[in-house]
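Chapter review: from sequence to fold.
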Amino acid sequence: MTIQEQTEQKAGMRPESARRLHVNQILAKAIPTYTVGLPIQEFDAILEANCFQPLEGAIYCGREGQVNEQVGPKSWLTFTWYKMESGKYEIVSYIHG
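The token string follows.
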């Protein structure tokens, strides 16, 4: 068991892998696939509520793109976007280790 895992266990936190699974379940329900804008604030709220770091401040631009950002010692948030002709964005997001 790593020092990080021992610290989490002493603090009563779920292991990082369990928190990733939980966040993915929340992302699937809370972040719509098709949305008017990029849900950065929603990502931050979900991450922070589950003891992960929020996303770094950035400018997300372009009709399509992908972000891979470390949000925990062994966890990364990946999300992609594509702006459709209707003006809505198609969002795919997940957290992985």
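Two observations follow directly from the output. The beta strands are 34-35, 64-72, 75-83, 89-96. The chain has one domain: 3-96.
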